[in-house]
Amino acid sequence: MGGLQIFGIRLIGFTAENGRKLLVSVVFLAVVWSAGRLLKWLFKKQATPGNRRAFWLRQAISIAVALANITGLISIWFDDPARLATAAGMVAAGLAFALQRVITAFAGYIVLLRGKTFNVGDRITMGGIRGDVVALGFMQTVIMEMGQPPEVQSADPAMWVQARQYSGRIVTVSNARIFDEPVYNYTRDFPFLWEEMHVPISYKSDRALAEEILLNAVRAHTTKIADIGEEALAELERRYFVKRAELEPRAYLRLTDNWIEISVRFIVEDHGIRAVKDRISRDILNEFDRAGIGIASGTYAIVEMPPLQVDVKQG
Questions:
Q1: Angle at 266 between CA 263 and CA 268, to 5 degrees
Q2: For the whole model, what pTM was predicted?
Q3: What is the CA radius of gyration of the chain?
Q4: Domains of the chain, each with CATH number or no CATH
Q5: Closest by Cα among 212, 221, 291 to 250
Q6: Of the residues 76, 103, 105, 166, which has the maximum number of CB atoms within 10 A of its CB?
């Protein structure tokens, strides 16, 4: 078969058959891509944060589109099985060497789908980034970043938000990171977290009253066991061996050289924790003021002044 000619110019190595295959490939890819976009648009109304059904529908559509493209292109270009086997071997060898991290990232995507590590809308820490998952692709996970604790404020890049609130940055993390580092999921299966607050008081203060004030403030603003529901509690006990008594607010005392530290432990919902702790802190301060209980702090006493010697020289 002769080569393809355009405006009288003969294209070396490009035949009319290849031209037809190229045209068919472009049309095929356009049709499949349009069909995928149409399906995603139809399910867009269900794409609310935490909607697992919408998440899996989007992933299924993306995988179906990718498989259709691969199958279609192979069918168009390789009608001879012998040529297909030879080309596949050469391509596989080249990809394995040149695209190692890309292949690892795609393998991470498969693990994420099969391992139920997280879904879109979950709050996670992955690759050192803490935030909410807003998208999951074949190669990368997109996270809406949250603040970090003070001990990692100077990390690169720097973080200016300390609490679990959005910083405004969108971060993409390679799916390959799941093979190198643990993934922390704050919301999987059980959308509650245990929190603690530490309040120091002096040894002269009424510690029984202080403990009561802390527990009352916590009970007023945190999740109650009754709100979780009997079915959820039973499932929690069955899967994680958590006793119901551990869900009730508890106070613990620790003796230090300078004060008594009261630690109150409680359970809260996975979102809005900073606001909850703010309301608790305000109630504690108000009640402490009424009860005459002060927050302890480090103090220093000078017990003796060193002797001073002044030499006066007369001219």
A1: 140
A2: 0.63
A3: 32
A4: 9-98 (no CATH), 123-185 (no CATH), 192-291 (3.30.70.100)
A5: 212
A6: 105
